[in-house]
Amino acid sequence: MNALLPTLLILFLSLISQSVAAADSIYICRNGIYENRLLSAGLELTASDLVCDSVVFSRPTKQLKVDFAEFAQSHTVNTVFIMSNDEKKLATNKAMAPYAASSSTASDIIRIDVATGQRFVETPLSILTNLTNGLTITLQYDGSKFLSMTDSTLIKTRQNNYVHRYTFSEAKARQNNWLATIPSKVRLNMLTLPGAHDAATGSVTTGMAKTQSLSIGDQLAAGVRAFDLRPRYNASSEADIQLENLEIYHGLIGTGVKWKDAMDVIINYLKENPTETVFINLQKEDASGSNDYSSTWRTSIRSYLLANKAHVLQKITTTTSLSDCRGKVVVVSHNPYGPESSYYGTVYGGLTASWEDDATFTTTINYTNSTAICQATITDNYNATNTSTKQDYIRANLDAANSDKSTRWYYTFMNVAWKLFGSNPSTYAKTHNAYVHQLLQSATYDSRLGFVFYDFCGAPDYTYDLLPALILQNHKYLY
Questions:
Q1: Per residue in 290-307, pLDDT tens?
Q2: Which residues contact 417 (CB under 8 A, 6 or more apart)?
Q3: What is the rounded distance in angstroms from the CA atom of residue 300 to the CA atom of residue 307?
Q4: Could you tell me the end-to-end alpha-carbon distance of the chain, in angstroms, rounded to an integer?
């Protein structure tokens, strides 16, 4: 293994060991050369054996042992999750039943809570034989941080035996890829996803438009999984406009972030973290007069998504699950961008039928203008500068999402717009982020909260703990 491999990766991955049956063949690859070894019954691979390029062994027949003794010297390991990438039934999950989800009693997760002082966990793997897409091992540590390793390679030998190939590299383990721990059968509308309102404003210096302090890449690494992106054109003539110049705005203020660049960051993250999914709330930011160029906006959005369709969800349905979404962006647009022959025609993901301004309202998410998918309730009262009034809007929508077990979606926008006198997004974010975090700590909510968009996600001075608290709302699906 490359000497530059991060220490944390070595500590975790090099300590995964496997009990194998007598006379099983183990192939250890170093510098591209596989060494064939025969192991006696019960012998485990040692840490030094696993410090290599990759290991191939026959399918598990006894136990998988995850040893984190050395890792635990500097971290508190809370839970170990072992997930079948094939959605095999590993445990009973009653939390899905209220949503009438398919296979609502089956979870593809084994959850092992770690006792104080525990240094390894073992689990039988007889139920995991014949996996076609391997398994994902995740440590939850230091409260709400995650570290996952995904094995997704299965090799069929000339003797028609199957072997698993674990490759140890930086791309196989990522911090905060927390959706790796959620069963694949969980439907999209059952999740609580922390979202960044006007996500691309991290580098903006104008106070009225700055609603984030982290870049999109840093937000992804912190665990944000929903992004509010508002691209528009601002040019002297339509003929001069190219996709590369489509910029994300917040109102009249340009962020300096191109739509293409923001999406490239997201899609590259998904390529490196195939267990994750990212939701995009897309709209064309307000523009008028000669600088609008609606037709070019539609063409640019459509052409980019088409070029990256392998990492874009084709169509949302009422039963769309994490299994359908992993490694992909899910786009719901306020504005149509269908083919030139029909702007309201087929889009990727979905299209909102309407979007009211500064209001709480219900709309329909469509596949085309006339094909409804589901209802969505949105609170977006961004001019509610009275603190108690705004918090009433927020709480009412979170309460509704928590109690509703239908296919309806919920969006809650916690932000307040800048005003010339007395209203600053930064000030309100400190107040409302703390308020929602307190709500979550009160144990009032035991179900989904939907898409929760807020300002200054993951920023230390803006109730950083709100982000992991929202993520933890999804843990009810883990058994």
A1: 455 567 788 889 889 999
A2: 382, 383, 423, 425
A3: 11
A4: 35
